[in-house]
Amino acid sequence: MKPNRLQMAMLAAMIGSAALVGCKKKEEPAALPPVATEPAPTAPAPAPMAATASVSAVDLGNAVGADMRVTAPMSSFAPKDTIYAAVSTATSDPAATVPGKLGVKWTHVDSSQTVHEESRDIAFAGSGVTDFQISKPDGWPTGKYKVEVSLDGSVVQTREFDVK
Where is this region: Disordered (predicted)? Predict the structure, then answer.
């Protein structure tokens, strides 16, 4: 049997294909697309601070004006004086209303006796003044006294005074 041209051409094509496949340069594996990662969790934004109220001053006197401020601050009183404590307050955010409890405790220091105690629920808004007072028509005993001002149950300011 004599090979014919067609067989020879087929044989040459097969040998050529085999040679090409065997000599083919090894291909690098295709680069994988980057893996999508979730961004690192971020800390939550801090919650806005709630507005707070504070006591900025306490003035004592024997008279107050229409604005509830003491007309003439003093620390010594006559036995028949009405004694006023004008408590100045402010809020950390002037536009906010802050509910709270403002209180006073009047004490005769010499006898350790509480003379009067009072508290009020207040809606603090910006700056303001609240006045408290004590009086005794038959006269205060002479001696040293103090008033403790509390905000929401905690003493925040103390003032001492005398009755002479």
Answer: 31-52
In-domain check, residue 95 = yes
- The CATH number covering residue 64 comes to 2.60.40.10
Residues 6 or more apart whose CB falls under 8 angstroms from that of 124 comprise: 53, 89, 90, 91, 97, 98, 99, 100
Dihedral over alpha carbons 108, 111, 115, 121 (to 10 degrees) = 70
Task: Tally the domains of the chain.
Answer: 1
In a domain, 135, yes or no: yes
Residue 6 within a domain: no
Please provide the size of the chain in residues: 164
> What residue has token string 């028509």?
137
Per the CB < 8 A criterion, the answer to whether 69 and 86 are in contact is yes
Q: Which residue has the tokens 């929401």?
A: 152
